[in-house]
Design goal:
- Helix content is about 5%, strand content about 40%.
- The strands form 14 sheets. A seven-stranded mixed beta sheet has the order 18-19-20-21-22-25-28, with no helix packed on it. A six-stranded mixed beta sheet has the order 37-38-39-40-41-42, with no helix packed on it.
- The chain is built from four helices and 50 strands.
- It has about 675 residues and is mainly beta.
- The model is unreliable at about 655-664 (pLDDT under 50).
């Protein structure tokens, strides 16, 4: 900063308004100074600096005092003129002098502490200003111009803050002109408007010491501020013009970090104390800090990492949120027993991982596009617990809560329909009885079904074509049962009704049987019933008729498989005619044909051929006509009521109560 008088030769003769004459060429010197050097200096200063205080010019005052003190310093006004309040220099403090006057202007000396300016004569809100000014001191034939900055107090409400007068402070004065408060007010500091600042540093080589540029600080066309390292052109720091975000490409090490907006660190963030970031914090490498607070403002962090506001985001191939079991004292890289868990996302799914995926959650679009349409996939068993008055279970929601699967009470689990069905299926967890259609009532068997149609089952036919005329393998089974008695049924009208063909792959035993049809003569008024033909043997019956030729010969034609299927063959012949002809069979069956001879010829003969089955299944399952009953005291009857025996002695008696079945 300049000290002492700042002065120059006065080439202008004020009384005559002409350039002073002399052999030294005062006119040329005046032109060079006034029309070139000084305008160039002002232009350079106004281009390189904005107006305001550049250095010093501190204002001090005690409350109740009648004066203020302004220390030496430098400022620039809007015209680019340099205003220097220098120690051992002079200043103008009279507020009433002519602003354009140069001659006969009283000045005060500037001491080492500055200038004392009385406040008497002013009151209310004021601004303390500093203005560029020069005064002339005559010195014979060579007068001088002294740089004498003008200090004065002006009313704040009419002050034009245009830069021609530099504001040093704002004051509140009493009616007596005493200081009641002192504040910066409109005081502003000068700046250097430039698009790029080059930072240089000393360097040395063998036998040489100098300096070289190491970085630049500049503004991007979009308004971002960029600090760039010249070695390799590395963008070390970028501040966004739109959001105020700060992005640091390398590591950051600091005693503490506070950011009002977002902060981005490209590498390691190492902070010895707290980290407080009001916006987003993006770190490309490890974070080492004592406390990390994001989005808390001035509030204290409640955890080592405390974030409020937007989400905590982790992206890329390793993106996820990792957390350890609270009983673990250190980080486990590859957990096998749940020591560490990771929430991450892949292929549109959210997954929970610990050594393996144990849970998957899919949004609607991803679930709809999947092969199974599942939104929540759990890789192990699930447990749903009761809580207070609410039983354990799961509600199913369509347009409303429609169904519930869970516990009815402590010993019953079932399915509940909210549209009026109630508990449609209930299982006793202790007795294992299952009730369907009986609500929560106790079951009388392992499976107890109650309803107009108790059970209806339909199997899928594996291929079209209707009923199968021959035994083939198929998978369309409506009901399949096994046990000592596969299926047992009773009924008030019929024990069973079959609409369609019935096949028995085994022996059919019955007390009787027959057919019942609509009477062919009176179908609207009667039924016709016939009994089955019974036999102790497995008989096959074949019937037909033939007409013998003129010689009395004819043939009984039998199926090609007849000899293979039948043994102990018999034949009954019935001739038809007015007289009884003689009819007999000739020889044995040969080539599934049996010859018949009549006397006379041309006789119609009805024939009946029987044979006993001899196929492998029949040979293995011959019916034993008579079998003894066991010698037990309670002799089992098939129909005890017909023989005066107790009903409890029935061989196929009443079902055993649920839970009391024998395991023998």
């Amino acid at each position: 900063m300049v000290e002492g008088l700042v002065r120059r030769t006065q080439y202008w003769n004020l009384p005559t308004h002409t350039v002073r004459a002399g052999a030294t060429g005062h006119g040329e010197s005046l032109i060079d100074l006034e029309e070139y050097l000084l305008p160039m200096t002002d232009a350079r200063a106004s281009a390189l600096h904005t107006w305001g205080v550049a250095q010093g010019l501190e204002v001090s005052a005690a409350v109740g005092a009648g004066e203020v003190t302004v220390s030496p310093g430098v400022a620039f006004d809007a015209s680019g003129r340099t205003i220097v309040l220098s120690a051992a220099g002079v200043a103008v403090t009279d507020p009433a002098v002519d602003p354009t006057a140069v001659l006969d202007i009283e000045t005060v000396a500037v001491g080492p502490a500055g200038v004392v300016l009385p406040t008497a004569g002013s009151a209310g809100s004021c601004v303390l200003t500093l203005t560029w000014r020069e005064v002339q001191r005559d010195s014979g034939n060579s007068p001088t111009l002294l740089h004498a900055p003008w200090l004065r107090l002006l009313p704040a409400n009419t002050f034009p803050d245009s830069g021609e007068q530099i504001v040093l402070a704002s004051l509140e004065l009493s009616a007596a002109g005493l200081v009641t408060s002192l504040a910066p007010g409109l005081r502003r500091l000068t700046a250097s408007p430039t698009g790029r600042v080059e930072l240089r540093a000393p360097h040395s080589t063998v036998g040489s010491v100098g300096q070289a540029p190491v970085a630049t600080l500049g503004a991007e066309p979009n308004g971002d501020v960029l600090l760039e390292l010249l070695a390799g052109a590395i963008p070390a720091l970028r501040v966004s013009a739109d959001s105020g975000d700060a992005r640091l490409s390398g590591a950051l090490t600091a005693a503490s970090l506070t950011a009002d907006g977002a902060a981005t660190v490209g590498s390691t963030l190492s902070v010895g104390a707290a980290v407080s970031v009001a916006g987003e914090l993006v770190v490309g490498g490890p974070v080492r800090t004592g406390m990390l607070a994001v989005g808390l403002g001035d509030a204290a962090s409640a955890r080592d990492v405390h974030i409020e506001g937007t989400e905590v985001h982790s992206g890329g191939p390793g993106g996820g949120y990792s957390f350890s079991d609270r009983e673990m004292s250190s980080f486990v890289e590859t957990p096998e027993s749940g020591q560490r868990w990771v929430w991450y996302a892949k292929a549109g799914e959210a997954r929970l991982w610990s050594h393996e995926d144990v849970l998957k959650v899919r949004p609607g679009a991803v679930a709809a596009a999947s092969s199974d349409g599942v939104g929540l996939d759990v890789f192990r068993r699930m447990r749903v617990r009761s809580n207070g008055t609410f039983s354990a279970g799961i509600w199913f929601h369509q347009d409303a809560d429609r169904g519930f699967v869970g516990m009815l009470d402590d010993t019953h689990v079932g399915f509940y329909g909210a549209n009026g069905a109630g508990w449609g299926i209930v299982m006793d967890t202790a007795g294992a009885g299952v009730g369907i259609g009986i609500g929560a009532a106790a079951t009388a068997a392992r499976l107890h079904v109650d309803g107009f149609t108790a059970i209806r089952a339909a199997g899928r036919i594996s291929r079209p074509g209707g009923p199968f005329p021959i035994p083939i393998l198929f998978r369309g089974v409506g009901v399949e049962a096994s046990g000592d008695i596969g299926i047992r049924s009773t009924g008030q009208l019929w024990a069973g009704q079959f609409e369609g063909d019935v096949r028995v792959n085994g022996t059919l035993s019955k007390s009787g049987g027959g057919f019942t049809i609509d009477h062919p003569v009176d179908p609207a008024g009667k039924y016709l019933s016939h009994s089955f033909v019974e036999s102790p043997e497995m008989l096959n019956i074949y019937a037909g008729k033939l007409v013998t030729d003129l010689g009395g010969f004819g043939w009984i034609e039998l199926p090609p498989y007849f000899e293979a299927l039948n043994r102990d063959v018999t034949c009954t012949l019935t001739p038809v005619g007015r007289e009884k002809p003689h009819v007999t069979v000739v020889g044995e069956i040969s080539g599934h044909r049996w010859q018949v001879r009549s006397d006379p010829g041309r006789v119609t003969v009805h024939w009946l051929v029987t044979g006993v089955r001899q196929d492998p299944w029949a040979n293995a399952h011959r019916i034993v006509p008579e079998t003894p009953k066991p010698g037990a005291q309670d002799v089992p009857f098939l129909h005890p009521e017909l023989y005066g025996a107790a009903l409890e002695q029935e061989l196929f008696g009443q079902p055993v109560a649920a839970g009391n079945e024998s395991t023998e």
